[in-house]
Design a protein that fits this description.
The chain has 10 helices and 9 strands. It is of the alpha/beta class and 286 residues long. Helix 8 crosses helix 10.
Length: 286
């Protein structure tokens, strides 16, 4: 299987860094500002050190002064390797680029002693021949991050990337709410097994206690509503490009009710297309 190599290049300020972050979220190994002449050696090392299924994206532009002098030789070397080489050339209108530089107050890499407009014009001239080599030209003039992500996913095949990673975490309110939680659910409304002598030493990892918690009518209703809410939310999180989602479920001590529900949620999560992780933060406390 040949490894996919995307060379991200184009005009400064046209969205190359944004594209690199999107590709990284999709499972690409991304390197920014690698000297072009080092690319064949880097790819050889990547063949040895990365999994065969890991594709590579490299951002190369005029920050690498002189890379245009020998890029054709380097491209020929890459195309003779076991890589599927593609060049994504990013550009934008002068108005869009000028606006972005004005908003960010960054200096253009070719405009140290002249205006930004002059730097843009020089860069267009320098990159003209490389633009002709491009597999795909992306005009980002009217693209926000979401639209660029949609465009790149469509270009990559639509089904690229790792699934949404969902962290299921139980916790005890007496120890504080997990700071990284995106969604927090309080299950202290359920009957507390702590007050049942034979259940108190157990945790939600034990089937006996879990059966007690999950058999409550209120718990069944809660699980039904939670599944409906997640089935609604998760597709929208994906559309917004979210890569990680932490769902925290808390009870008083983080040993009984919250652990039981997280275990049940893990066993029958309403969306099979996610990568589930589980953490019982406070189960060993108390």
């Amino acid at each position: 299987m040949s490894r996919r190599l995307l060379i991200i290049t184009g005009l400064s300020g046209s969205g190359k860094s944004t594209a690199a972050r999107i590709l990284e979220d999709q499972g690409f190994f991304v390197v920014d500002n690698l000297p072009f002449v080092m690319l064949p050696d880097f790819i050889q090392r990547a063949q040895e050190g990365l999994r065969e299924t890991t594709d590579v994206a490299v951002v190369i532009d005029v920050r690498n002064r002189g890379f245009l002098a020998d890029y054709r030789v380097t491209l020929d070397q890459l195309k003779s390797s076991d890589c599927e080489v593609e060049i994504l050339f990013f550009e934008a209108s002068d108005d869009a680029l000028l606006r972005r530089y004005s908003e960010t107050r960054r200096s253009h890499p070719l405009a140290a002693d002249e205006t930004v407009q002059a730097g843009i014009e020089r860069e267009r001239q320098l990159l003209h021949s490389l633009r002709d080599e491009a597999t795909r030209i992306v005009d980002s003039s009217n693209l926000n991050t979401r639209l660029m992500r949609d465009l790149l996913l469509k270009y990559l095949g639509g089904n690229m990337g790792s699934p949404l990673i969902v962290n299921l975490e139980s916790f005890g309110y007496r120890y504080g709410v997990p700071p990284a939680a995106d969604l927090v659910f309080d299950v202290r409304f359920l009957p507390n097994p702590h007050y049942i002598e034979e259940l108190r030493p157990l945790t939600g990892m034990d089937q006996t206690l879990r059966d007690y918690v999950l058999s409550q009518d209120a718990c069944r209703d809660f699980r039904r509503h939670l599944d409906q809410m997640l089935a609604f939310l998760l597709p929208h999180y994906r559309e917004e490009g979210k890569s990680y989602l932490t769902i925290a479920i808390g009870c008083t001590g983080g040993r009984h009710r919250s652990v039981s529900i997280v275990e049940a949620l893990h066993a029958s999560f309403p969306d099979p297309q996610v990568n589930l992780r589980i953490n019982h933060r406070d189960v060993a406390k108390g």
